[in-house]
Design a protein that fits this description.
The structure holds three protein chains of three kinds. Chain A has 27 helices and two strands. Chain A is mainly alpha-helical. Chain A has a two-stranded antiparallel ribbon with strand order 1-2. Chain B is α/β, with parallel strands linked by helices. Chain B folds into two domains: 178 residues, 3-Layer(aba) Sandwich (D-Maltodextrin-Binding Protein, domain 2); 158 residues, Periplasmic binding protein-like II (D-Maltodextrin-Binding Protein, domain 2), CATH 3.40.190. Helix content of chain B is 42%, strand content 18%. In chain B, β1, α2 and β2 form a beta-alpha-beta unit. The longest helix of chain B is centred in the N-terminal third of the chain and has 22 residues. Chain B is globular. Chain C folds into two domains: 226 residues, 3-Layer(aba) Sandwich (Rossmann fold), CATH 3.40.50; 120 residues, Beta Barrel (OB fold (Dihydrolipoamide Acetyltransferase, E2P)), CATH 2.40.50. In chain C, 23% of the residues lie in helices and 33% in strands. In chain C, a hairpin with a 2-residue loop joins β11 and β12. The radius of gyration of chain C is 25 Å and the shape is elongated. The two termini of chain C are 38 Å apart. The chains are: A mainly alpha, B alpha/beta, C alpha+beta. At the A-B interface, α6, α7, α18 and α26 of A face α3, α4 and α14 of B. Chain B: It comes from Marivita hallyeonensis. Chain B: It holds the Pfam family SBP_bac_8. Chain B: This is Putative spermidine/putrescine transport system substrate-binding protein. Chain B: InterPro entries: SBP (IPR006059).
Chain lengths: 565, 370, 368
């Protein structure tokens, strides 16, 4: 064996290619094509063009599937674990909570409240705090209003400082002095020169101000850039948020500005003196939070934030199997909140019943169709497909009219005297109704593959069996039925997979005992907006389908599935 | 149907964009309005969309009947970065959520909306009904009960607690498949005073208490999802009493002449109104603002009551409510806000349900599934 | 050969008619009697009713009218599985989900034959068709010829007295087909079973059968042993259908016992043997086998009529020469000559004279 054919890849494991090569090696050497190149290589060159052409032909579909199907599925898988919102909205708080023991029933340190103040203030300005509130509300009831309230009340803290600084020097409430104190002189010149067209020159901090007033510089920069990008306003004309005043107070308290000689030095030194003075009013963050809402002094909210601070979370998946993430680890939910296990079970169980009723009803029809002359069979096939011609809602509603207590079937039964007028049967808004309506709707999906498999079973098999002495039943059971199994298999897979994902019909006729897991997925998608949970439920459903598919392959064999001849 | 709507919406957009460039005076030529379909959308069309289009030559409006999924769809549009809607009709609770999520635009009500004819500012005229900075109220409706007049004997129900009284009123009843309002009614009928309802409902014991009360009629309840279900169930005689929106009952009683009676006791008020999606381009925003100012003025909101029995959200509209456009009957007595009807009422507690919705709903659904 | 001394019929069709739609008869008045042990072939073009007859015999179709008897018993009302008739199908109809052994065992199982007995019989049947090593395989793993043998073995394994074969060799290539033809006849005669064999291949019919029933238009046109069928066709359909044939059309001019004179359409006169013509002036179609045409004047009988012919084409076919002539306006007239050392090779364009023995030229019914 020359190296030539081994060259293209050097994988040494048992790949099909390597197996081929091993086979070749047993021979004396590579078979050569007419021009002397190894035959295999010239063959693969010839095939490559074919493959490329085939690829070009399927490319539109491939791209379509990738964009419209594969990508959303991965998006869904991603959403079911994604949890960036906490870390992105409360970055400082998450860091400050790092060493917080969530299992202790204590409040976190003051630094956490301080961090939460900055985070929530900035989030409120960006209108992101309510979104976080909705997110945390899935885990901790009350978070939604807690964050909404905090967004409104958080200004109060900074106003205490702002007022005192303003009383000291009106310039503390003016845009320009702040900008001169914090901003790079070059930037101020550029911003002054900016005529309102195009993009504003990006705000830059003045050299050294970050070392002198770290918190103030950080918050002012956030403020200034937010003004520029989100509001389209010049920081030279906007007085800063009150959070900047709070930051200034903290910086002045912590540091020493006596050596400062830059712009507005006198203002800063005076403020420093004010802060040191005994009469200066201060705010304890924890108390301020308590004032906004005393729920902030309940450790639960901090535990929840801490539990959900990582970028990825198993919380959605735990929720979807009736568990919850607690500081102590995963735990079962209270019994009166468990629902998904029950619904998964019910969905699988009822889908199985629906599949079996489809087989029972569909088999004779498919058999009949496959044994009729083509013309008649086609005509009857139209009848089978007729349900597809009307909207799903209409069909389902028609079942409502048929099955309800004052409905057609009950009326007929009462008229025939088979049930008493006050003992009308309950056939809808329960599992029975769901099974009936879904069997009807999914029946064509069972009949079509069964029909197409049955119509490829030559009648001579049945004749052969009979001529060999088999009775009608033996002929059917030993000869015909085994050959129709691939059709049943294909139909069952179709119907089963369709039915576990169905939600419109169960929603309309299922009542409470006939609803499926998909109904909860739909609810979380469109009503509760808990897309993470919906994605986790959907992912579990997907896995269940794949596992069943795998089981089917192991038991029946997937090559025993035929959708057509 | 969906596809054609999307196509229409898309083409409307294209036309809008093209129109804006061509006209150049800053207002798009078309709007995509999102509403609930049915009689309610028709009332909007008659009361202010058609008159507005008549006044503004060359402007067109496309309806999208997606209000029921508006929050989810807006979120999806926002993530995709392509907002195709210009104005969305939603219930107040959804408006609050859209506002919370940053999907709806905050508006200055006094700046955007017309003052009342007597000069009262819009925010005063709408008053407390502005439940969110993003919400532009249109109507007050209520979720209340209708009953079959021929199935209740000589003693038609006068109290909402008739729903829980299966001895006096045997037969099935229909309730909405969600905890909101049902939990409140259950507590009220379990002896909790209206002032205490939410304090009780906040606690686990209170929630269990409400569910226990609902448990007494669980086997007799058909749970509905769509507002049209209860009128149909009542018309078919499937249920003896059931909750739905008062406008639906009005049309079943007055327009379709069904043997149904209204029970206004402890009706739950709710609000419906517009929100403007966040992030609209300037020309479309300008058009929408122009339209909304017109569509929510005092006369227009009063006009809407000619077509549907929902109360106008403006205080100044109430005296202008007249007769039904086709039946000619006085509409005022059919309004949920009419003093005779509004003896026992409560307003959808948005803040409470924003907090407790996820939690109580999980319990409620688990209870239902058992 | 059939046991002709034994005259009681084993298979009997009496005045059988069959219609599927109530308008058209597919089988019209069929009468057929078969002695035990005979190999009878039903030959005919598609739609001639031969397969329908076979299906009626097997019990998959019911006769609209008339009786079918097997061994003296009417079987019209006996369901197929109780008739005990073995059958081989065109597509073999081997059950694809069973192994070869299971396929063969199937008819024995449904007859409730014990397991050890079953295995012995299956083995014997497999050995009989020389497929003993293939018992564990599935039908799809066998070649067409192998499947055909298995189908045959399966039809024989429960020892039926009558075996029906519906174009069993139709899907095989020529060489294999000839080999199987021999094997089937050999086996049938060795086992002494009665066989009804359906085919549209005349060679197959001629080489295999004791008797051949030629079907057309729902009737048996002729029922005879192969040699008689070939040499003495009773009507122009049979003459046309069996073997190659030259035809000329004309009118009877003279009738003289077993000789007649026919005036062809161009006025030439020829001698012929009247078969189903009886009157002077009647239209007729005469048929002459290509190998019976003589162009060597020395070998022609004295005094017979000859025809002028022009050689159009000479085709060398190895064992024979095939020469196409233009005779009496018919330019599809073919003669076949043996490739012997002294044989003349006719050149295209040559003008020759041809003739034949009057008994080789059969005056048959004229087509309508």
């Amino acid at each position: 064996m020359s190296d030539a054919t081994a060259e293209p890849d050097k994988i040494s494991g048992p790949t099909p290619d390597n197996a081929l090569r091993a086979g070749d090696r047993a021979d004396d050497g590579p078979v050569l094509a007419a021009d002397g190149t190894p035959l295999k290589r010239s063959l693969s060159r010839a095939l490559r063009a074919q493959k490329l052409r085939a690829l070009a032909l399927i490319a539109p579909l491939l791209i379509f599937v990738l964009v419209s199907f594969i990508a959303p599925i991965f998006d869904m898988l991603f959403r079911s674990v994604e949890n960036q919102i906490v870390g992105e909205t409360l970055p400082r708080t998450v860091v400050a909570l790092a060493d917080y023991d969530a299992t202790s029933d204590e409040l976190p340190r003051d630094e956490v409240f301080e961090a939460a103040y900055y985070d929530i203030f900035i989030a409120a300005e960006r209108k992101e705090h309510t979104r976080l509130g909705s997110r945390l509300n899935y885990e901790q009831t009350g978070s939604s209003s807690l964050f909404r309230k905090s967004g409104r009340g958080i200004d109060d803290i900074g106003e205490v400082y702002q007022d005192q600084f303003e009383d000291l020097d009106e310039n503390w409430d003016e845009a320009r002095p702040w900008a001169e104190l914090m901003g790079d002189p070059d930037w101020i010149a550029a911003q002054d020169a900016w005529g309102g067209e195009g993009r504003m020159p990006r705000f830059e901090l003045r050299d050294g101000i970050s070392d002198l007033l770290p918190r103030t510089a950080e918050t002012y920069q956030i403020f200034a850039r937010f003004m520029q990008t989100e509001e389209g306003e010049s920081p030279l004309e906007e007085e800063p948020w009150t959070v900047v005043h709070t930051a200034l107070y903290q910086d002045l308290l912590a540091g020493d500005v006596s050596g400062y000689t830059g712009p507005r030095a006198d203002m800063l030194v005076a403020a420093d003196a004010l802060v040191e003075s005994p009469g200066f009013e201060t705010v304890v963050f924890r108390d301020a939070f308590e004032e906004i809402d005393e729920d902030w002094l309940n450790p639960e909210i901090w535990q929840t934030i801490k539990t959900y601070s990582p970028t990825y979370t198993s919380g959605y998946f735990l929720n979807s199997i009736d568990m919850q993430k607690t500081p102590e680890g995963p735990a079962l939910r209270d019994e009166d909140e468990r629902i998904y296990g029950l619904l998964f079970q019910r969905t699988l169980w009822m889908s199985m019943i629906i599949t079996f009723s489809c087989i029972l009803l569909g088999y004779p029809i498919a058999y009949l169709l496959s044994n009729l002359p083509m013309r008649t069979a086609n005509l009857l096939m139209i009848l089978v497909l007729l349900p597809f011609w009307t909207s799903l809602l209409v069909r389902t509603s028609a079942w409502k009219v048929m099955l309800q207590q004052q409905g057609v079937i009950n009326d007929v039964l009462v008229w025939l005297g088979m049930v008493a007028d006050d003992g009308r049967l309950v056939m809808i808004n329960n599992q029975f109704g769901t099974i009936v309506a879904m069997t009807h709707i999914l029946l064509p999906f069972m009949i079509l593959p069964m029909y197409s498999v049955m119509s490829t079973i030559p009648p001579s098999y049945v004749r052969a069996a009979k001529s060999l002495g088999a009775t009608n039943w033996t002929t059917f059971w030993r000869v015909y039925f085994p050959q129709s199994v691939p059709g049943i298999g294909a139909g069952s897979i179709l119907v089963f997979i369709l039915s576990i994902g169905y939600y419109i019909t169960p929603e309309i006729v299922g009542g409470t005992s006939g609803i499926f897991i998909s109904n909860r997925i739909a609810y979380h998608i469109s009503s509760s907006l808990n897309w993470g949970l919906a994605a986790a439920l959907g992912t579990i459903l997907l896995v269940v389908v794949l596992v069943l598919y795998w089981a089917y392959d192991r038991i029946v064999g997937i090559d025993n599935v035929k959708l057509g001849g | 149907m969906k596809l054609s709507k999307t196509l229409m919406a898309t083409s409307a957009l294209t036309v809008a964009a093209a129109g804006a460039y061509a006209a150049g005076h800053g207002m798009a030529d078309s709007m995509t309005l999102v509403s609930w379909g049915g009689a309610y959308q028709a009332s909007q069309q008659n009361a202010y969309v058609a008159p507005y289009l008549e006044m503004n030559d060359g402007v067109s409006a496309t309806w999208d009947e997606s209000s029921a999924e508006a929050v989810a769809k807006l979120r999806a549009m926002n993530e995709a970065g392509n907002i195709t809607w210009d104005l969305v009709d939603v219930v107040a609770a959804d408006a609050i959520r859209l506002c919370d999520e940053g999907l709806a635009m905050e508006v200055d009500h006094d700046e955007l909306l017309a003052p009342a004819p007597d000069g009262t500012s819009a925010s005063d005229d709408f008053g407390d009904l502005i439940v969110s900075d993003c919400f532009i109220p249109q109507i007050v409706y209520s979720t209340t009960f209708g009953y079959r007049t021929d199935m209740v004997g000589d003693t038609p129900p006068t109290s909402v607690c008739a729903v829980f009284d299966t001895e006096a009123y045997p037969g099935k009843r229909s309730l909405e498949r969600r905890p909101i309002a049902n939990m409140e009614w259950a507590l009220i009928c379990d002896g909790v005073s209206i002032d205490e309802v939410y304090n009780v409902l906040e606690t686990e014991e209170g929630q269990d208490r409400a569910l226990a009360k609902l448990d007494t009629i669980k086997d007799d309840v058909i749970w509905w999802n769509a507002g049209a279900d209860t009128p149909q169930l009542l018309a078919d005689g499937e249920v003896v009493i059931g909750s739905t929106y008062n406008g639906r009952l009005f049309s079943a009683i007055e327009e379709q002449d069904q043997p149904i009676g209204m029970l206004w006791d402890w009706q739950m008020f709710d609000l419906d109104g517009w929100i403007i999606p966040a992030g609209l381009p300037e020309d479309r925003l300008a058009r929408v603002q122009d339209f909304v100012r017109f569509a929510t003025d005092t006369q227009r909101l009063a006009d809407q009551a000619k077509y549907i029995s929902y109360g106008p959200a403006r205080a100044s509209s109430a005296p202008l409510v007249s007769t039904h456009a086709e039946l000619g009957i006085e509409m005022a007595p059919h309004m949920p806000t009419d003093p005779a009807n509004a003896q026992n009422t409560f307003l959808f507690n948005y803040e409470f349900w924003a907090d407790y919705r996820d939690d109580i709903d999980a319990k409620f659904q688990a209870w239902l599934a058992r | 050969m059939p046991d002709t001394s034994h005259h009681d019929a084993f298979v009997e069709f009496e005045r059988v008619q069959k219609s599927y739609d109530g308008i058209q008869l597919v089988v019209k008045d069929l009468n057929l009697t078969m002695p035990k042990g005979e190999f009878l072939t039903m030959l005919g073009p598609s739609g001639s009713g031969k397969t329908t007859c076979l299906m009626m015999l097997a019990g998959f179709e019911t006769a609209t009218h008339g009786d079918i008897r097997l061994d003296g018993r009417p079987i019209n009302n006996i369901p197929p599985h109780k008739r005990g008739i073995g059958m081989v199908f065109q597509n073999y109809a081997l059950f694809p989900h069973m192994t070869i052994s299971e396929n063969l065992s199937f008819p024995l199982e449904v007859r409730k034959i014990g397991k050890s007995d079953r295995e012995a019989k299956v083995k014997r049947a497999l050995d009989m068709v020389e497929m003993g090593a293939f018992g564990g395989r599935r039908p799809a793993q066998l070649s067409g010829g192998q499947q055909q043998r298995i189908a045959l073995a399966r039809a024989l394994v429960f020892e039926p007295e009558l075996v029906l074969m519906d174009e069993p060799l139709g899907a095989l290539d020529k060489q294999l087909r000839e080999k199987m033809q021999f094997e089937i006849t050999h086996l049938a005669h060795r086992l002494g079973i009665t066989v009804v064999y359906v085919t549209h291949d005349q060679t197959e019919a001629l080489t295999m059968s004791d008797r051949v029933a030629v079907f057309d238009d729902g009737r048996i046109q002729q029922l005879a042993p192969p040699d008689e069928l070939y040499e003495k066709p009773q009507n122009s359909f049979v003459a046309q259908f069996i073997g190659e044939n030259n035809t000329l059309e004309g009118t009877i001019r003279e009738m003289n016992g077993d000789r007649c004179v026919v005036q062809l359409n161009n006025g030439d006169l020829i001698d012929a043997m009247p078969v189903n013509v009886s009157q002077v002036g009647e239209r007729t179609r005469v048929s002459i086998r290509p190998e019976r045409v003589e162009f060597n004047k020395d070998r022609l009988q004295e005094g017979v009529h000859t025809l002028k012919a022009e050689v159009l084409e000479f085709i060398y076919m190895g064992d024979i020469f095939r020469t196409r002539l233009k005779v009496a306006g018919n330019d599809e007239f073919v003669i076949k000559t043996r490739n012997a050392p002294d044989q003349v090779r006719l050149e295209p364009g040559a003008q020759i004279e041809i003739g034949w023995l009057p008994e080789d030229c059969r005056a048959l019914d004229a087509p309508n």
